[in-house]
Design brief:
This is Acyl-CoA oxidase. This protein has 477 residues and is mainly α. It contains 20 helices and 6 strands. It folds into 2 domains: 140 residues, no CATH class; 259 residues, Up-down Bundle (Butyryl-CoA Dehydrogenase, subunit A, domain 3). It is globular. Bound molecules: flavin-adenine dinucleotide.
């Protein structure tokens, strides 16, 4: 926590950086230290983007709020509550109010907090349900100066909560760095962890293709996701896709895979992967459950209310897949008699929504990564890893049968293995990763420092009296 606070202070964000989503704002989110403590990141994301950012929008009309914004940028806390403004019994629409919640000892009068149970396996952060019962506030608590009802309530609402799509984008950032951590930890471990097979010479487990592929795919996904995320930060006037789906789902699959490929070590908190996976589950649900958001976005795309900057089919096999999912389903929707509210729409379109949105993201991400000059072999690995997610489409439309996929993967693994260690170093996370399994030396140090319990033998007393006792002891072991 202290470490991250220092990182936040070093980022030295101004209200303008936050308000305009400047480069320093995004660099802080992509800081490779963030995946180590998602609890603190959650506090930063809520405090900086949502609270300070929302307040900063009002600074022109409310310069008195400047000290509060500055203190929020240092992570002091205050709550912004969205509540209905009622004047003389008349509803004037939802507005933001600055509300004191508690001090170190007690809740503010009328504020009720119910502490929720811990979320299994996650970075420690308490969550609670907060409700309000006749909380008395000063006039200055209301953000904005007008008490009038908005002319267009829907537009007014979106103006008030306009930072949410950016917040949704921001919460995926630590998992871009998280992919790097996972590839690095599992990769380095697989180079030094040896087993003895048929011969007597120990063999590193990285020699197995079943280690190589998940590690290489995680590495490739990290490089591609980073290139895409960085591209998105330059065009964030209005995030147009829930890229959280693509990045978070890729992180979830990759990290679960590589953590398991680290055996028992992959389950330990000290090696961070299992905890990052648990933390990710919250990010998939908070800021709107990704499945529900994908259903909405996919439905709107299919009704052509909305369009995405998808690369053309000629860009890549993934772009061909994305374009086909979009166009084939637009046609399907056109042929459904009851339209988007019918049972047939529900049955045929909803189950495809998340996979399709993720696929649009894969195509866009690959295109961004190529423009960012991510090495060709990593782009190829990324592509084949994505093909695995929808094999029936690739078989039907691109003749990608199982044997072809296996052979293409094998040849890529052979080509990339000699450079794998260098690629892991180029992720530039070595200074941030805390997992002791990354080297034989740090693992031995870690084992030596584990809490140890034993009882010394009594001096002079033989360990075993007769051979029967020895046999019994061996049997127990
Ligand atoms: C870590 C974390 C932090 C959070 N922080 C905050 C916070 O600061 N403030 C706050 O107000 N809330 C917060 N939330 C709550 C969060 O916004 C909700 O959990 C989220 O929107 C999902 O709602 P729900 O939990 O009620 O799930 P539900 O909506 O009950 O979803 C349950 C199931 O129903 C499905 N479902 C729901 N709607 C549809 C639909 N239209 N079509 C198809 N399937 C559907 C879902 O996909 C899911 O499978 C947080 C949640 C988490 C996990």
């Amino acid at each position: 926590m202290l470490q991250l606070n220092l990182g936040l202070r070093a980022a030295n964000l101004s209200a303008k950086d936050v308000l305009c989503y400047g480069p320093r704002f995004w660099e802080m989110h992509l800081d490779p230290i963030q995946p180590l403590d998602i609890a603190t990141f959650t506090i930063i994301a809520a405090g900086i983007n949502l609270t300070a950012g929302t307040l900063a929008q009002y600074l022109d009309e409310r310069p008195d709020l400047e000290p509060l914004v500055k203190s929020l940028l240092r992570l002091d806390t205050v709550a912004l509550v969205m509540a209905r403004l009622v004047v003389d019994g008349q509803n004037r629409g939802p507005r933001w109010f600055i509300v004191p919640i508690c001090d170190e000892r007690k809740m503010h009068p009328g504020v009720i907090s119910r502490r929720l149970p811990p979320r299994t396996g996650t970075s420690p952060l308490d969550f609670s349900l907060t409700s309000f019962d006749h909380v008395v506030l000063p006039r200055s608590a209301l953000l904005g100066t007008s008490l009038d009802a908005p002319v267009n309530p829907r537009e007014a609402w979106w103006r008030e909560v306009g930072r949410i799509p950016h917040g949704s984008m921001a919460v995926a950032a630590p998992f871009v760095s998280g992919l790097k951590h996972s590839a690095y930890v599992a990769g380095k471990y697989s180079f030094h962890r040896t087993i003895v097979g048929k011969g007597t010479a120990p063999m590193p487990i990285i020699n197995f293709p079943t280690q190589q592929w998940p590690i290489m795919y995680t590495l490739a996904a990290a490089r591609v996701a980073e290139a895409w995320f960085r591209e998105l930060t330059t065009i964030v006037a209005k995030p147009s896709i829930d890229h959280r789906t693509t990045i978070c789902r890729q992180f979830q699959r990759c990290t679960e895979d590589v953590a398991e490929r680290c055996g028992a070590q992959g389950t330990f908190e000290s090696n961070s992967m299992a905890r990052m996976v648990s933390d990710l589950k919250g990010v998939v649900i908070a800021e709107g459950d990704v499945l529900a958001l994908c259903i909405r976005l996919f439905s709107e795309l299919l009704q052509e209310r909305y369009a995405l900057p998808l690369p053309p089919s000629s860009d890549s096999l993934l772009a061909q897949h994305a374009q086909s999912l979009l166009n084939d389903n637009i046609q399907l929707v056109g042929s459904i008699s009851g339209g988007h509210r019918s049972q047939e729409f529900q049955d045929l379109i909803l189950p495809q929504a998340e996979g399709a949105i993720a696929a649009f993201g894969h195509a866009m991400a690959l295109s961004a990564a190529r423009s960012a000059h991510v090495p060709e072999d990593l782009l190829d690995i990324y592509m084949l890893g994505v093909v695995d997610l929808d094999p029936s489409w690739y078989l039907q439309h691109a003749n990608f049968d199982k044997m072809l996929l296996l052979r293409r993967k094998a040849s890529l693994m052979h080509r990339t293995l000699p450079r794998l260690n260098q690629y892991l170093d180029e992720l530039e996370v070595a200074d941030y990763v805390r997992a002791p399994i990354i080297s034989d030396g740090s693992l031995k140090e870690h084992m030596a420092a584990l809490p140890t319990y034993t009882t010394p033998h009594e001096e002079g007393k033989p360990l075993f009296v007769n051979s029967a006792e020895v046999d019994m002891h061996v049997a127990k072991l």
